[in-house]
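note to self: dont lose this again. the chain is below, predicted strucutre after it. 197 aa total, dont forget to put it in the shared folder this time
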Amino acid sequence: MSLLLQLSRAIDALNRFVGKFVIWLILASTLISAINAVVRKLFNVSSNAYLEIQWYLFAWAFLVAAGYTLLNQEHVRIDVLNSKLSKRAQMWVDIAGFALFLTPLCLVVLYFGIPMLIQQYQTGEMSGNPGGLIRWPVWVALPLGFVLLLLQGWSELIKRVAFLQGRIPDPTIKEGEKSAEEALAEAIRKNEENKNA
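---
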């Protein structure tokens, strides 16, 4: 299990690294959009390439940051149901979700997405819009993003199993976030301080 936990830490580090730089794609998209709007208003000049590069960058940011989103527990969850379960049951639900749903979904997307990327690259398909861009660079984001998401799913799976074995603390608590027990203890302490004051 220690080797798997090292693998998990390496995957976490990879997605943290990717997440730090993905924000620059959003900034670039925003700047291109602003420059395009100014040039269009001032000089009455525009190009479909400016519009397409914006959604290329957005697609890259959205897809490549999926693993980072999972790492930081910002993905969509059904907390209304999950919060009613014990911590062990929550971990088992996560394990089932990562093993039975996330992994097969990512593998299916990769199975169909990689051949499409190869075809796009080989044919050099261009946008149908006048002045549009070549398509394959945006298709690279699909397999890359799903590989990072798949790896992060496996990392989270490893952490859940390690938690159930008592090897690591609760992996679902975000950094800086207090557990329910810590929050309760702090509330009791503050209540006592208020009574004594």
